[in-house]
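Below is a filled-in request sheet from our internal design queue. Each sheet records the structural input a requester submitted and the sequence that came back. We keep these sheets so that new team members can see what a complete request looks like end to end.

REQUESTER: design group, bay 2
PRIORITY: normal
MODE: inverse folding
CHAIN LENGTH: 153
BACKBONE (tokenized):
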């Protein structure tokens, strides 16, 4: 099987896996991470969202590991800098967003990617987020994104 080398949460890693193995399986089953979640498996729900090269949201359930080669991949586990939470994580806590929590790593990573592209996102920008939350935390997600924008903008 081919090897794939990339940077995962700041550390170089090499995994042996089929080219088309979804990155989510690599992260969870080979690397032992639990933050990126399996939801739909068909690029619809966003539970598996991670970042590519620090600012682009990718749906890892539908992203072949071969395409991660040579890139930086960040999961929720790699978002904080040591004990210092990312401003989006701080905002999430302040707005008490999470309910069951299952979708939340993906929601946070999607919010980080949105804010990387647009430091002061509009309601329409936030409406464009496709991540599903079965607990219906959308209002608090919106508040947290605005909170994070105020912190960083
Ligand atoms: S599990 Fe990847 S988008 Fe739903
Ligand atoms: S907090 Fe439960 S699915 Fe979003």
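RETURNED SEQUENCE:
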């Amino acid at each position: 099987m081919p090897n794939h080398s990339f940077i995962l949460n700041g550390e170089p890693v090499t995994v042996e896996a089929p080219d088309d193995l979804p990155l989510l399986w690599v992260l969870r089953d080979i690397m032992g991470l639990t933050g990126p979640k399996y939801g739909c498996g068909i690029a619809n729900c966003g539970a598996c969202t991670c970042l590519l090269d620090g600012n682009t949201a990718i749906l890892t359930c539908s992203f072949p590991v071969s395409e991660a080669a040579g890139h930086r991949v960040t999961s929720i586990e790699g978002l904080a800098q040591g004990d210092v939470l990312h401003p989006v994580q701080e905002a999430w806590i302040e707005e008490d967003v999470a309910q069951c929590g299952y979708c939340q790593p993906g929601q946070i990573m999607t919010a980080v990617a949105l804010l990387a592209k647009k430091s002061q996102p509009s309601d329409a920008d936030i409406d464009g987020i496709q991540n599903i939350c079965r607990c219906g935390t959308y209002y608090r997600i919106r508040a947290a994104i605005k909170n994070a924008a105020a912190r960083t903008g």
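SHEET NOTES:
- The first helix runs from residue 23 to 30.
- The chain has a mean pLDDT of 97.
FILED BY: M.R.
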